Amino acid sequence: MLAMPEIHYIKHLRENEDLNISEIARKTGNNWRTIKKYADGEVHSKDVTQKKRGMMYEHGYGEIVDDWIEEDFKLRRKERRTSKRIFQQLQNEHGFKGSYRTVCEYIQQRKPKIKEEKEKRYERLEHPAGEAQVDFGNMTVVTNGEYKDIKVLILSFPYSNAAFAYPLPAENGECFLEGLKQLFQQAGGVPTYVRIDNLSAAVVSIGKGDKRTYTDAFLRFQMHYNFEVQPCNPASGHEKGNVERKVSYTRNNWFVTAPIMEDFLQLATWLQVQTVEDRKRPHYEKEASIEELWQEDKSFLKVLPLEDLSVFSLDTATVNKYGEISVDNERFVLRKAHMKQVVVVKKEWNQFTCFTNDGEVIYQEYRPYMNTTRPIPWNEILGDWEIKPRAMRYSRFFPYLPERVQAYLLFKKEDIKKRITGLRQLLQNYSLQQIHELLQQEELLERSPHELGFLLEAKNISYPEKWDEMHTPAILVDYETDLGQYDRKLCPLLEGGIER
Prior knowledge:
Elements: H1 4-15, H2 21-28, H3 32-40, H4 55-58, H5 61-72, H6 83-94, H7 100-123, E1 131-143, E2 146-157, E3 162-168, H8 173-187, E4 193-196, E5 203-206, E6 212-214, H9 216-225, E7 228-231, H10 241-254, H11 264-278, H12 290-298, E8 313-318, E9 324-327, E10 330-333, E11 342-347, E12 351-355, E13 361-366, E14 374-375, H13 378-387, H14 403-410, H15 416-426, H16 432-438, H17 449-460, H18 474-477, H19 484-490
Parallel strand pairs: 1-4, 4-7
Antiparallel strand pairs: 1-2, 2-3, 2-14, 5-6, 8-11, 9-10, 11-12, 12-13
Helix pairs in contact: 1-3, 2-3, 5-7, 6-7, 13-15, 15-17
């Protein structure tokens, strides 16, 4: 059989040069019959099928090995089975009687084909299974009767439209990586590819095309969890449209109205319950539930590492002449440090710790943004309730009041308006938390607002503590004066008096 370029040349001489068979045979040096076959005949591509023989194909061992190879593609290279391990496993678990060489040859042939089939299968999908998109969303919650602006990191899977959400106090590197770690754990695996925009928590600078310079912490995190990054082009949010829609969906369904947050762990648990329940609804386009598609999506995830990665950053700070250091643009006094001492600052997502060069912990505190809140305009809200007291119970703001304050306002239905007015006046001098703590005593629910005001004023009066006095001789510390002697001197006629 001639090669395709030779066949093409024969066709060219016959059709374009108008040579006869003999002339073409002389010019090419091939047999006349061969030239006749290709010059005037049709060239068909024939599929050469060869029946696979051998125990790997005929006894089903090949299918077992194929499954193992696909499983191992989800793991890191160092965690995958070697050819020797596959051979031993076939012998021990499936009674394989063939040779080690047979297994090696089969793996050598099948591994690249399985990888190629998997890549072609991905190309047919608009959103390949196992790929994810991630982004931050701005949300508002209520904690201790005040608004708190937080971030929610959302990991969405476009193939199934499943999503996971985790609340965080800020959008810095420590929060981003801690949130991503928690989201991987919720998903039960690591996405093959993660599409992100050019957020400063991960990207240092943007180059041409797909070139990005990532932070060292993000690269360390990526290597530990073994996923690939797909960066978006600048100002191209549509390239991660699925997670952009998920941010809006999360805000509209779970943060309007603002939920009450006790702490970040409680809110994270609550959000996880909401996302699991949300998967029960049907997919917007495919004829299946999100949960069914998610199980398909999940099968493509990579296995989580055996050990979690501790997320933190290290920095140094110099103590100034006031004994202070600056963390997140806030000043903190280190009483155990001396002036101009250099301390090591370990920053985690929620707190920071200061160490000496010897590793001694000398200070630990929450990061400043953990306690940042916005006041709820209670004066205006209570003013509206004064006008319509019956609407108070159904107001979106009523659940934001502390529990005992709610009970106080509802204790006597006939006095609701009077108590609303009284509470509004009390809030000019005292916080809701102070009022809540005072009302822990059950009998105080019956008191009027002005009586609560007197009790709060008395409770807040602070008396100076007794100082330790070190100069009085010990013999005089517990000495008691006998005042009877003065009585007898001043009134000698009284009983026990002294006559002159």
